[in-house]
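Q: Convert this sequence to structure tokens.
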Amino acid sequence: MRVGIIGAGNIGHMHAEAVAACENTLLAGVFDLDRERAQSLARSSGTVAFDSPDELYKASDGVVVASPNRTHADYAREAIAYGRSVLCEKPMAVSLLQAADMRALAAAAPGVCAVGFNYRYLNVIREARRRISEGMLGRVVHIDVAFKRASALTRKHFTWRDSAAEGHTSGALGDLGVHLIDMLHHLFRSPVDLASCQVALQTKVAAKGSHAVEVDDHAFVSGRIEDGPSFTLTASKASQPEDTGFTLAAVGSRGDLSHDSQDGPVLHLRTGIDWEQVKLLGPSRLDDPRGEVTGWGDSFLDQLHDWARAVTASRRSGTLADFEDGYQAQQVLQELLRIGGRM
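A:
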């Protein structure tokens, strides 16, 4: 399967590594509006930098859209019109209207359209989902999820991520929290009950240089999952370095589970009085960038493998997120931004 990548930033680099490591996939080329950046990725990946998206579509069987959020919809529409399969980074769009249009196009398209919710592929999430779905915790009554970074503190210059031009989807809730929204949907196979939600959005780093930051860098949400537990969700880009990472804690009628990425790939479980540690070790195939959770690199590889298998062998896994999943996450995200006063 020939894969083309649109967007030569950090995520584009990670997708390129995944394509190189995945069997039966070949990197057909890359495109970025920043020609120099596209050429740099092409050189390091042993491929070509195309001068236009059209050239990339023609040379590819599937297209990874890893460009800024506001461009996702246009590139995805174009790729689908060429009959190509699409793996679109999250969030799939900057508005629910765009997401609805993308979902409709995908439903009628011959290719496989997926959304880059790679955290579904972390070993701790796979194991937590199995434990929950098999009833090992009994009835889960509450779950807490948190994703914390320090990028609002460490990135000193104003970029598109600090601008409201992305429909506020580049803030902490849209960038990090959307992973957690999808994770809740995936773990419990049920959507967030929007009527139950309360939202607090903050901008702790109010300015970068002479530019006011226009998006949230810290978000807190509480609510319920339809046909599921209550939840609390924290997404932050303004956490101190020692507090960064991903955490998960679920309380059930017969047991509990918890995970802190600072402990590595370990899931803590209690089904009686004592806690046990379940070490989820496996071969590390792609390196994790500094500051990322254990298994982050491999999650891109596993996601790409699932997508490629769905394209070439029509074998869809229950883990690969499709455009319907992306639309549902976008629907929740947009309403939470509205409740929080950002829409």
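The radius of gyration is 20 Å.
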